[in-house]
Input
Amino acid sequence: MKVLNLYSGLGGNRKLWKGVNVTAVENNEQIANVYKSYFPNDKLIIGDAHDYLVRNFREYDFIWSSPPCQSHSKMMRATRHTINTYPDLKLYEEILLLKYFFKGNWVVENIAPYYKPLVEPTTKIGRHLFWSNYHIKQIDIPGITGIFSATPEELKNSLGFNYKGNIYYKGNNDAGQVLRNCVHPKLGLHVLEQGKNGKAITMQNHIKAKAIKLKQKQHDIRY
Ligand SMILES: C[S@@+](CC[C@H](N)C(=O)[O-])C[C@H]1O[C@@H](n2cnc3c(N)ncnc32)[C@H](O)[C@@H]1O
Output
């Protein structure tokens, strides 16, 4: 199974995946180097994930995308007094591309935004929203919420990324940010497993399900 892991970060979502052939795309070289040290057999592209998706999506069986959530986040809205950037709508561009053009199973992950999402998400688990074309069951994973007060060392231990030193995003002196951006590995595994086995909610399946419901209703009225 060929999996595309976009905006791969350190690889939180990817940490427990086994038996899949992964291509990862990350544009921060320092983060990409840590990713490579944990997943040496993955094909790693240091570049723009958004651009890679539109040009290569047809090559994959399953696509995971975790676009940056800063410009949508409640935290950003609460702490920035003067806003000088638009919400990054690439999130929705990717959802629409995948929904209407990609034939395999897919999922886009983000943190709940400060506004009502422009496209309704399929599932919410902990602080994560998921847009997907298959059903993702709820799961309770201790530690997927409430990690905001943890130190970088605690986060490294809990996620299993014990790299040396700290990584900072440009203009951000919080060493924990790159770790807090990780999807918990157990959640990443759960979402992939559901996607491997899950039946895509295609228009055909959707219509079939509606027809079955309607038949049932007619049957109930008659008897
Ligand atoms: C939310 S994090 C991804 C976390 C990842 N899914 C995990 O579970 O570890 C988003 C990542 O996308 C990277 N990024 C931001 N813009 C990018 C772009 N245009 N192309 C590729 N990577 C990008 C950031 O450096 C960051 O590591």
About this structure: The first helix runs from residue 29 to 38.
